[in-house]
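Marked as duplicate of an earlier ticket. Keeping the data here for the record.
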Amino acid sequence: MRLPIRALLPLAVLTALLLSAVAALVQAPYVTGDEAPHIDYAYQVWQGDLPVFEDGLEHRPDGAWLAPVQWTAQHPPLYYLLIAPLVGPLAEAGHPEAAVYAARAVNVLLSGLLVLVAHGAARRICRPGSAVPAVVAFVVALMAAKSLVGGSGYNDLLAAVFVTAMFGVAGTAVRRGLDARLVLALSLLAGGAALTRLSAGVVAVVVAGVAGLAGIVRARQGRGRWAPVAGLVLGGPAIVLAAAGWFYARNLELTGNLTGSHFDWSYENQGRSPKPLLQVLVEAVTWLRMPNLFWWSGQQPPRTTYVMTAMVVTALVLVWIPVALAAARAVRHHARPADLEATDRRLLWLLLVLPTGVLVATQVVFASNGGGVYPRYLLPVLLPICLAVAAGLVTRPRLLVPVWTAVALADLAGWVAKELTTPPAEPWYYTDAPVPSVVAAVLAVGAAVATARVLLDSTANRTEAPTASAPARSASTAATTS
């Protein structure tokens, strides 16, 4: 039975929810060293406090490995305010497993919301009638990094929702020009991002900056007004500082730096050490791992042959080959639009490329200082990455979408099998939920295959590339909508 095309987005959301549920069930409570501090942060917020690095954890479940310090204390508190009403009472009542599953349930819902937001943002960046936004929804739904975080008590997804929404608002500003509503939306979303994760706040500032630049360009060309530009330049920073400035001032007071980092402690206690920036840049693992948002084993370092092989295959097939195809198509179909259209197109390219470059550079510097290289750190720029992947897939959808789907689901199956057959490191650790995990995985695979089938039907006659590589709407239309 052929499903209607309008079922694609609901199916993509369902796929995202089910895959995050798989991760939530496969991963035992407090399975990583980070999850216990994240849950403790929410517990301390429920108690009316903010955590301090040196004070350690107040919520100390018996079956978890507990960090000797509170190393998530450097994060802003918005995510923890969101989950505290669920986590706090359960932890207080002595139900640590229920507390972590409650936090994971919130992230499962956020993973579905992220698909909707990414699809909406892609529609505002791509030209009308493009097949790419539908493919973006599918790609985000199957994204391993999103699913792994969606099945954990981490704050990354909320930050990704804020920044992804900002890309859509900024795309609208490039196409139509700034107005008061867009300025307010950009400012509030940037404030939310900065109050969730510092890296997301940095990307948010860059996205807002490109939107402001677009407003300046349009005002100088007579296609826009200066008042919204002034509002964004003056009001935007004021809203962000009012929302999150106090927290970074607290970090500075407590640790001597805005990030709240404690690299000295990591060097002494976690076996980490700085390495030359050039070394990070030339290591193949950096570019196989960091942008590989679709690698299911990506939460852990590539210590085994299986994990390393999966990383290489998924990086090439799911990321770099589609991106290369998209780039080749962009070069092959390069057009020479009118001056105003060319300006808008360049601004759209800048909107996608500049924030991605800034975050990648930030993560490279972080790695050179002894930090880890994890795919989830690039979740704030998942939209540009997924737009590039989607643009590659629509070059040959009948061939590439099934292959892409098969590789992604095979990697999922391998990860589930490996996780469920690996005993816990210590017998007193919490354990996973194997039967519900397998049921959820089977349902997720079915939803993903159904989404892919609908996607193939929807792209049969619409194989468009993103607007950034195609002519924008006419100058007259853009002028009337600014």
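See parent ticket for discussion. The chain has 19 helices and no strands.
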